[in-house]
Amino acid sequence: MPTKTSSSFIKKTLAGVLVSGAVTAALSSQAVAEAPPAGNDAIRALAQQEIAANSHVVKAYFPDQTIARKAAISFHAQLLETDLAGGYMIMDLDQEDRNRLAAFGFRFEPATDWLTQRNQQLESIGTSPPSALSSDSVFETSDFETSVFSTSVSAQSIPNYSCYETVEESFNVAQQMVNDYPNLASWIDVGDSWEKNQGQGGYDIYVLVLTNKQTTGIDGGEKPKLFINSAIHAREYTTAALTLDFARQLTSGYGQDADMTWILDNHEVHLMLQTNPDGRKRAETGLSWRKNVNTNYCGPTSNNRGADLNRNFTHGWNGANGSSGNQCNATYRGPFAASEPETQAIESYVRSLFPDKRGPGKNDAAPADTSGIHLDVHSYSELVLWPWGDTSTPAPNGDALQTLGRRFAWFNNYTPQQSIGLYPTDGTSDGVSYGELGVAAYTFELGTAFFQSCSVYNNTIKPKNLPALLYAAKVVRTPYITPAGPDITNLSLSDGAAGGGVQAGTPVTISASATDVRFNQSNGTESTQNISEAEFYLNTAPWESGATAIAMQSDDGQFNEKTESVSGTLDTSGLSNGKHMVYVRSKDSSGTWGPVSASFLIIDDNPNPTPEYCSAQGNNSSDEWISQMSIGSYTNSSSAAGYTDFTEANGGSLIQLASGNHNLTLTPSFGGRSYNEGWRIWADFNNDGDFEDSGEQLFSASPSSSAVSGSLTIPASALGSKVRLRVAMRYNTTPSSCGSFNYGEVEDYTLEVVEGSGGNDQYVYTNTDNQNIPDNGSVTSTLSVSSNAPAATSATVTVTATHTYHGDLRVTLENGNSLVVKNNSSNDGSGGTKSYSATLTTSQFGDFKGIWTLTVDDVYNQDTGSLDSWQIQLNP
Question: pLDDT of 386-441, one tens digit each?
């Protein structure tokens, strides 16, 4: 087995020394006996203990959602389920807890229906061998549970939750990453679980370290570090899955995604996937297990035994009456600070990662340039939390913690707040990172349930939170400074420089949006400023020695808005063939530079060889031909020919169209009598020499003897490309893109997709991405109104959704301020496809430029649907 971690061990590992020994060997060494038949009886006994606690489970109605969220912090251990729209929480409360909540306006009812369903699930535990438990091999636990819980490496995902890996499966995935990405990934043994510590089987506690081992920090020093731990509370299914999916995203994205590449080249990401593996094995059976499994507390056969690891940390331990001294309580803090081996593993590892930058006093702030972030990923309650949790007084770095917290909450749309609830908590994981060392520390409370459905995880939790984790990895160098600065979005390079490449010497235009408004303002207000500067760097990041900034300009000629479209020109002369990195960042009027975003620039001596296109022509055009072709503002008139090459390479004029809808008119001419003619138009958007790919047929019209009119749509994904456009007319039928036919004509053109909102869309901005709306979940969608959009006195937002019960839906729109487009209503029981509209006013939003975020919440159970599309139309 690998040796336990130390600072020198970490440095050696990151320099390229791989941890020896596969995880499979480590796990198989723990297998000691074949599971006896009595195993399921032990599991059933634990389940029966949960059923026996029915008298404490109530439906707790809260007075308002602000109180509800604070209660979710202080009484997190007692939470079982939450329905914010319904106004209640299902909670496991003794009389003392009920009295404390009643003082804040809570009232209580029996949770009869919920208990019936929960008890049915618990009764099924242990009735047959669960797929999470294998009979191949086992590890030792207490005498009562000997041979019940498996550590077989063949174990698959948690039963009925295919999206969540078991402890073993997550370890196997991490080990496989080391095998697949040996220059990026290391798998480090940093401690033991309680059962492993006691010689009763159990698990090693591992950290997956992700970074490019061939690079170093500034001047050969250490790189900034992001540390994330998950699943410290066993029953919180989503947490380890999200952390592992983040690892998958980074490793698979390296070399393909510029941001993920520079992050791993310049920063380190440390992931403790399973912080409480012993407890997690109990929870994998369906037991609502929270603590570790220490049999010294509350009796060896008790379902309530163990210590709450997130009340056991040294800093602030038992310091604010924010934990329990009762061994059977869900927040039992342990007999002394850091009494548990799992807590010791985190504390020693965090101390090995980060230097101590904060003084000993409660009000001693860490320096503003302190590096590093610690994220503790929990579920549930849809919260982003920061210190302190043991007092309502802001932390000495409170303003900066709040700024980054509201950045995170912009991505996941959670409520950002200091982690004090109705009552204090103490001995929590941020104690060692922020309280002791001064490192920026946060807790994410994912989702709306401990045993969250896979549909909600895949459709809502994962897509909302992976961008937040990536943002953390971006700003980890200076988390108390950089998040206050503006973000770079919509970064693109002209002429296919980021895709197929360009020849050295080709001027490349770098375009982006710089915005200072991406904060969640749902709980207070974060100040925002106008953009004052933007710049880009080639191959050398701004923080590296020798970095040279190249200024970018505002596209409207002046920096005077909170969101600006910016651009600059890069001279590629002398650049070598291959990939280069372009870094872009912007500064706001407060003088703060935001994080960089990056794009690859590809230099290639022969970047886009001219494709060979199939021939197409009409063999006889004297009787009918294309006399005029008009798209948008472009018009071309021509005489009879079976085929004509009007492409730019052949001297033709360039058709320049922005993405969006464009009107067109196709006019035939005839040598004598008129005939019915069919029409089609294609564009080879991927420049592969054919018109057969999805989305490349832009227009089709059935045979007609007169001019035909209609529209075609240029996709936004084609921005910056030059492609071949083919127009074909054929007698009495619609033509094909290749081959000859008896009567008609074919013409080829060059189309360039340019910046802007084109044709019919100059006042309309649309997002047509279809997203599933999960039951009792939510989806978010964004669109950008460009900085050169026409002035408007008002705007109209229109949202189209399909749902089996529209009364479940609540639709909100945000751009600094927020607007409710549609409220949920039990009076709207209709199903099918419906559209909802609302008016945006300048008095509420100022102008309408910038990034808009639409959120569709399904606030009740049992119905699903989709967000089909939405648009903002400016009204001049």
Answer: 999 999 999 999 999 999 999 999 999 999 999 999 889 999 999 999 999 999 99
> For position 40, what pLDDT does the model report?
67
- 3-state percent breakdown (helix, strand, coil) of the chain, nearest 5: 25, 30, 45
Query: For the chain, how many structural domains are there in total?
Result: 4
- Contact, 803 vs 863, CB < 8 A? yes
Residue 72 resides in a domain = no
**Residue 398 DSSP SS3:** helix
Beta bridge partner(s), residue 563: 515
Q: What is the mean pLDDT of each run of 10 residues along the chain (876 residues)?
A: 36 32 31 37 81 86 92 92 89 93 95 89 67 31 37 54 93 95 97 96 97 93 97 97 97 93 98 97 93 96 95 96 94 97 98 96 96 97 96 96 97 94 93 97 95 91 95 98 97 81 92 95 92 97 96 95 96 94 98 97 80 91 93 90 93 87 91 94 91 90 91 82 94 94 95 68 71 86 72 85 88 88 81 86 83 89 85 79
Is residue 505 located within the same domain as residue 433? no
Of 491, 469, 539, 534, nearest to 265 by C-alpha is: 539
Same structural domain, 228 and 343: yes
Q: What is the pLDDT of residue 127?
A: 61
Q: Are the C-beta atoms of residues 191 and 203 closer than 8 Å to each other?
A: no
C-beta separation of 860 from 838 below 8 A:
no
- Strand intervals (E) in 428-562: 440-446, 487-493, 508-515, 531-538, 550-551, 553-554
Flag whether 87 is in a domain. Answer: no
If asked whether residues 466 and 599 sit together in one domain, one would say no
Residue with tokens 């650049």: 575
Task: Determine the structural domain holding residue 595 and report its residue range.
Answer: 487-603
Question: So what's the pLDDT on residue 38?
Answer: 40
The beta-strand segments (E) located in 266-391 are 268-272, 373-379, 383-386
Closest CA to 705 of 624, 618, 640: 624
Residues near 638 by Cβ (< 8 Å), separated by ≥ 6?
Answer: 625, 626, 627, 628, 629, 644, 646, 747
**Beta carbons within 8 Å of 325's beta carbon, 6+ residues apart:** 318, 332, 333
Q: Which amino acid is at 497?
A: A
- For residue 349, what are the CA distances in angstroms to 64, 188, 334, 344, 346? 40, 11, 20, 8, 5
Q: What is the secondary structure of 191-260 as a DSSP string?
A: EE-HHHHTTSS--EEEEEEES-TT--SGGG-PPPEEEEEE-SSTT-HHHHHHHHHHHHHHHHHTTTSHHH
Kindly tell me the number of DSSP H helices and DSSP E strands found in the chain: 17, 39
The percent of residues in the chain predicted with pLDDT above 70, rounded, is 90
The DSSP output letter for 593 is B
- Same domain? For 279 and 356 the reply is yes
Q: Are residues 329 and 418 in the same domain?
A: yes
User: What pTM was estimated for this model as a whole?
Assistant: 0.70
Q: So what's the pLDDT on residue 860?
A: 82
| Amino acid of residue 569 | T
Query: What mean pLDDT, rounded, does the chain reach?
Result: 87
Distance CA 265, CA 259 (A): 10
Return the DSSP state at 484. G
Separation between Cα atoms, residue 580 and residue 600, nearest integer Å: 6
Name the residue among 304, 130, 285 with its Cα closest to residue 293. 304
Q: Give exposure, 96-121, as e/b (b: 16+ Cβ within 10 Å).
A: ebbebbeebebeeeebeebbeebbee
